[in-house]
Amino acid sequence: MATRQISVQRFSVTSSKSFHDVVAALEARIGRPDMNAFRKNIAAAQTEDELEKVVQGAVGPLDLMEFTRFDLGEILRKELGAEAPQSLRLVVGNPLIMKQMVKHTPDAGSYAPVTILVDERPDGVHVSYDTMASCLSPYGNRESLEVAQELDAKVESLLAAAA
């Protein structure tokens, strides 16, 4: 049995835009494929080239796609009613980027795809992301860390543009 301490860095941007405008800006920059069709197409791919075509057809302009979302605000509204703040967790990534990291650091699969949290607070809408490089840094693999840093740059650019 082993336990590893991971220190995570959080990138966060606060926006004066509305919650819905921030979410719309994120959605405009990431792919939002039909996940049932996507899974079937991934399973049907016979070669790496076919896999890449499926993924390229699913990602948005930043080579990222939404895998799923969790509307945390909806859950809060069950208790707090209409005054509950909006809160949304997006699970975003790219299977090809994930593959590059997992190939060198198997534990990268615990962190990819990544989570983007969009939530309303008194000072504005916060858009946050725990950086992949900080998650993978303790594993000491240069190749996966370089891929993680490139992914972080994409996600941080996405968040800054949306905010």
Q: CATH H level: which superfamily?
A: TT1751-like domain
- Tally of domains: 1
Q: What structural class should be given to the helix and strand makeup?
A: alpha+beta
Number of strands: 5
Summed over residues and divided by their number, the pLDDT gives a mean of: 96
CATH topology: TATA-Binding Protein
Helical percentage: 40-55%
CATH class descriptor name: Alpha Beta
| Main sheet summary | 5 strands, antiparallel
Beta-strand residue percentage: 15-25%
Q: Provide the CATH architecture.
A: 2-Layer Sandwich
Instruction: Please state the overall shape, judged from the principal axes of the Cα atoms.
Output: globular
Query: Which parts are unreliable, with pLDDT below 50 for 5 consecutive residues or more?
Result: none
The radius of gyration is: 17 Å
Count of DSSP-assigned helices: 7
Sequence of strands across the biggest β-sheet:
1-5-4-3-2
Straight-line N-to-C gap? 42 Å
How would you spell out the order of helices and strands? EHHHEHEHEEHH
